[in-house]
Amino acid sequence: MATGTRRTLVALIAAGSTLLTACAGPPFRAAPRIDPHARCEALFARVDAVVAREGVGDASATRIRGFPHLRVDRLLASFRTEATGDAAVRFWAGRLARLDATARSAEIANLPPPARDALTAAIPQPHAGLAAALAQCHDELLAADLADPVRLAALRDAAVVPDDYSTVRRIAGLYPLTRIPFAAGVRVFERETAQVFALPLASLPVQGRLQHFAPPDEALPSRREQARQIREAAANPLGVPYVEGEALRVLALAHAPVLVVDVAGDDDLIGTPAWPPRGPARVDPSQPAVFYRAAHARVGGQVLLQLVYTAWFPARPPRGALDLLAGHLDGLVWRVTLAPDGEPLLFDSIHPCGCYHFFFPTPRARPRIAPASVDEWRFVPQALPRQAEPQRVVLRIAPRTHYLQRVHEQPSPVSTPSSRYALQADDVLRRLPLPHGESRSLYGPDGFVAGTERAERFLFWPMGIVNPGAMRQWGRHATAFVGRRHFDDPRLIDERFELLIDGEDFPPSNTR
């Protein structure tokens, strides 16, 4: 082929290639992957950032890393590997979403109005509102979790509640050694308390005047009606009796205790927590109230309903210049564990600091053999008879310390001064009213009530409890200095007591 011809052919081939390249367009590049849920994840991240900046976080339930739309408590954490089958998994995950929605609602309500308005203005469709946008995103992200086996497995792994003990503090405080004198101190307190409970009721000293605080005088449901409500509430794939709303209030009213307080000063009057214009939260004794909530105990393969009552006092006044336990605000927490038939099986009590955990079994609860250890396991200052219907439990409370001194079934003579307390849902403490229509939680984002720190924290820190003695939010009550124990642990009761839930009594035993 001639040289000129060859050059012409090469030119034609080059021109054709250029033409084809121009027609084909730029080189192919894969389109970037678009996360269909990025919008919702960004919304939760934005809300969380504002909540953290304004210091209005709620610590009752634990946030789940990697799942900003879900939170977990110790009950649901105990089901994380046991919830099997599509219905159970969906119900379990749905309750996680509900925990987040409830806490998030309180957090947003407690935001300063400008911060809340700014969040609402950032919603792509302002007319829908922030609450509606969050609800839609809750549903969207939850559906994605349930549809993805990998994501669901990751959720099971992450749905845990860390305990309220600091291992670092225990290491720094030489816990294996320092726990020994602490355990000895606990035993001394238990012996002294047992001596008080051993006194005849009429022999208990009175430093001021005995004042009754009784629940509202309303018609009470029968045990049969209570059993029906509990049974209906437990008709879910996990068998958890989630009694809520008015049904919970009715059950709480049926088992609410009578408080008989030795009133030696204003700090011994129960009241309603409130925020003054300045300073820490206070308790208003002019509005006596007891706050109730539901909790749950896992016993074998069943889940039992528990009713929890909290009474608040203005303070624990000092008994001397070096009273490490004195401080602002104090309280008493009383819990009733119910059988499915509505009869109390066992009672227990703490203070809102998590301190002074006492158990009061009935004949349907038999203590299990305690492990051989110096750990705080179970202190039973008094056993109780079966509670007749509609008999109320009466709590005798000491002045100043607000220690329990006795539990009995019949109130003292009616000649003692008395008053009625209001029965309020514990959740109202997450949104206490402020002037100008705003609100603020009683609890800080760390779960503590600000201003209730005790001097004991400088001495007791080696036991690993953060801020010992301070008042705490539900879900944050570590109840043992020696050992590890949490008031809301769903297995707490079952580990320490054998319960009869079929209505019979255990035979008499010398283990009591």
From TrEMBL:
Keywords: Signal. Residues 1-24 form the signal peptide. This is Uncharacterized protein. It comes from Aromatoleum bremense.
